[in-house]
Amino acid sequence: MERIHATCVAIDGQGVLLRGAPGSGKSDLGLRLIDQGAALVSDDYTELDPVDGRLVSHAPDAIRGLMEVRGVGILKTPVVDAVPVAALFDLVMLSEIERLPEPRFETIAGIDVPVFRLHGFDASAPAKVRVALSALRDDRFHAS
Questions:
Q1: Residue predicted with more confidence, 115 or 141
Q2: Domain definitions of the chain by residue range
Q3: Which of 52, 99, 138, 139 is catalytic?
Q4: Are 3 and 71 spatial neighbours (Cβ–Cβ below 8 Å)?
């Protein structure tokens, strides 16, 4: 089991890890995705286990069902117990995002996970998460 500093939401049964420094927009982007139909798995810290060749995400017991909404407080939130991870989104400054990035992967608990970089506070960030998941699922990335 590995624990990482990331929020995880489930979109159509696919786990989305949102990783970044404090204040990078993990909970904010997670909240916007939840507002559009995603489900919370874990906020702020996420535990990851390799299961049958897939990386599975779940919340640490101490924070299960809780989400911090900056300016509002810590709220009880319905959760999905566990979900296979489809992608990791690193939330970074705009200046750190390449226009046309090469495919990236990170090995977590022995499993290779696709990695994307986003600015968590971009208005289009939720749409970019969804389009990346769709492209991964349907193998729509163009090879350079």
A1: 115
A2: 2-137
A3: 99
A4: no
